[in-house]
Every structure is written in C-alpha cells, then in structure tokens.
Amino acid sequence: MANKAQIPTNNSALIAMIADEDTITGFLLAGVGNVDLRRKTNYLIVDSKTTIKAIEDAFKEFTTKEDIAIVLISQYVSCYLS
C-alpha cells in the first residue's frame, strides 16, 4: 500500500459539527477534526453555558466557509434550540 499513488485533488471537503462534548469527542477520535491557519476549528462544543447567539454565529461561519461540505447538528443541540 505504500507504493499506491495518491489521487490528486484541488480541494478537500470537511464536516463541521455543532454538538455536545461526547459527540465531538467521538468525531475527533475518528479523525474528523481540523484546525486552520487562523486557529479556527471545524466544531463547536455546546453545553448549558453556550448561548443561542454563539450557536447561530458558528452555523453562519461554517456555512460560509468554502471547505466545509456538511454541517452536522446533533439532536441535543436541536432540542436545545427549540
């Protein structure tokens, strides 16, 4: 497998996550986490202290970034918003 040629791509797509700590931890352990050059992550950990404005701002940021293809919002967060 070491001699297998890599398929060249011009860009890559990321998954952004807005979820509770356990869900984020699982995805990070699976290798989904990313930190860009500006030290911005592709996830927001939501707990009881997270404001709705912070969640909305993260959603707007994730949906405007060109390298993010999917924004995953956990059921915990969706129930928190309603």
Automatic annotation (TrEMBL):
Highest taxon of the lineage: Eukaryota
A single cellular component GO annotation: membrane
Keywords: Hydrogen ion transport, Ion transport, Transport
Family listed: Belongs to the V-ATPase F subunit family.
Protein name as catalogued: V-type proton ATPase subunit F
Keyword flag Nucleus: no
The keyword Ion transport is annotated on this UniProt entry: yes
A Pfam family of this chain: ATP-synt_F
InterPro entries given in the database record: ATPase_V1-cplx_f_g_su, ATPase_V1_fsu_sf
Molecular functions (GO terms): proton-transporting ATPase activity, rotational mechanism
